[in-house]
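Item description
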Amino acid sequence: MSKICELTGKRPIKGHHVSHSNVKTNRRFFPNLKKKRIFVPELNDFVEVKLSMKALRTVSKHGLYDYVKKLQKQGKDITFDLHEGPEGC
């Protein structure tokens, strides 16, 4: 199970645990990911996506379909396929 947001591409980053004696040991910082089932009115269907909470707030504000179209227009590689809506039929 990869820990990568399907919309923003957020992924774990590396860092250090720092002890009281200032000894640094490696660790990973994980993004706050949740698997959500979101209704897309343009498709009249539910889509299940793994999102960071930042992406979920953006999707709640603008809608999943519009947000994905905006990201695709910017040339971002979206890791899931949002099939065409009614205008694509």
Remarks:
- The two ends are 34 Å apart (CA to CA).
